[in-house]
């Protein structure tokens, strides 16, 4: 079983939830509710990053999402045409933003959590940048592959 | 987006949105800031209608906590599913007292 579908929105934060709910629904038959949560959160964080940082909040730019449903994994590509993200952001993750000291109010993070959440929630994360596009590939393995 | 109710000197703030994401976080933060700046420093945030929070929403909650300062209290009630999972995953469950019900959160803050 291999099937795939492409969806797209323009760079408007109000539209991210539509896409997230659509992708979650696609994963319903393959992933546990916990893994659906993981995929939905990662997708939202990735698209928010594209809109806020890649396109710097400008409207009218395109964000494409390709979802591949394979027998043993769900592969989600987020494709944009913004300036590429610095690759070291993914390759050499900064210190774990969640290892803060909860007794020090000032240490508790308010931002910079998106990429860390994606890495924690997905099994594989890859960033490919070419002259024509940037592609963030996120893979979630299916725990009990369907017969 | 928010409705409020004062109980035992604790402000119960109910979030009427299903999602606190990057598109809603700024408005959420503004409305919460108004509650805090009006002098409330013990707040229970009722998230029982919320089924999704992203890192922008979580950041807005942390920002409210900082605005309340060390003498303020911010407890969370009714977080389930993906919302409760996010608190655990980010270890924010050490920062916000999580309660199953508004009643138990109010009880803790008014004690």
UniProtKB/TrEMBL annotation, chain A:
Molecular function GO terms recorded: ATP binding; protein serine/threonine kinase activity
Keyword Kinase attached: yes
Pfam families reported for this sequence: HATPase_c_2
Keywords: ATP-binding, Kinase, Nucleotide-binding, Serine/threonine-protein kinase, Transferase
Keyword check for Transferase: yes
Annotated ranges, domain Histidine kinase/HSP90-like ATPase: 11-140
Domain of life: Bacteria
Coiled-coil regions, chain positions: none
InterPro entries in alphabetical order: Anti-sigma-factor_SerPK, HATPase_C_sf, HATPase_dom
Protein name: ATP-binding protein
Lineage: Bacteria, Pseudomonadati, Pseudomonadota, Alphaproteobacteria, Hyphomicrobiales
From TrEMBL, chain B:
InterPro entries: Anti-sigma_ant, STAS_dom, STAS_dom_sf
Record Pfam families: STAS
Alphabetized PANTHER family for the sequence: ANTI-SIGMA FACTOR ANTAGONIST TM_1081-RELATED, ANTI-SIGMA FACTOR ANTAGONIST TM_1081-RELATED-RELATED
Native organism: Microvirga aerilata
Family from the record: Belongs to the anti-sigma-factor antagonist family.
PROSITE patterns per record: STAS
Gene3D superfamilies attached to this UniProt entry: STAS domain
Entry superkingdom: Bacteria
Molecular functions per Gene Ontology: anti-sigma factor antagonist activity
Stated name of the protein: Anti-sigma factor antagonist
STAS domain segment(s): 20-109
């Amino acid at each position: 079983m291999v099937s795939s579908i492409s969806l797209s929105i323009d760079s408007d934060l109000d539209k991210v939830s539509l896409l997230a709910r659509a992708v979650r629904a696609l994963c319903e038959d393959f992933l546990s509710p916990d893994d659906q949560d993981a995929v939905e959160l990662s997708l939202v964080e990735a698209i928010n990053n594209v809109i806020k940082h890649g396109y710097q909040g400008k409207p009218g730019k395109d964000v494409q999402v390709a979802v591949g449903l394979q027998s043993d994994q769900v592969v989600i590509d987020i494709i944009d045409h913004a300036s590429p993200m610095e690759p070291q952001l993914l390759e050499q993750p900064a210190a774990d933003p969640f290892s803060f000291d909860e007794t020090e109010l000032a240490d508790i993070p308010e931002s910079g959590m998106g990429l860390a959440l994606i890495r924690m929630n997905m099994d594989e994360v890859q960033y490919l940048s070419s002259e024509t596009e940037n592609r963030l590939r996120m893979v979630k393995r299916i725990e009990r592959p369907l017969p | 987006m928010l409705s409020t109710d004062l109980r035992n000197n604790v402000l119960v703030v109910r979030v009427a949105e299903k999602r606190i994401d990057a598109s809603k976080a700024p408005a959420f933060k503004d409305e919460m800031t108004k509650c805090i700046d009006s002098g409330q420093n013990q707040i229970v945030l009722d998230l029982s209608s919320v089924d999704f929070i992203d890192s922008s929403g979580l950041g807005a909650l942390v920002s409210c906590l900082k605005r309340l300062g060390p003498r303020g209290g911010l407890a969370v009630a009714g977080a389930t599913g993906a919302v409760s999972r996010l608190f655990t995953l980010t270890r924010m469950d050490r920062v916000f007292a999580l309660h199953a019900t508004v009643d138990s959160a109010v009880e803790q803050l008014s004690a």
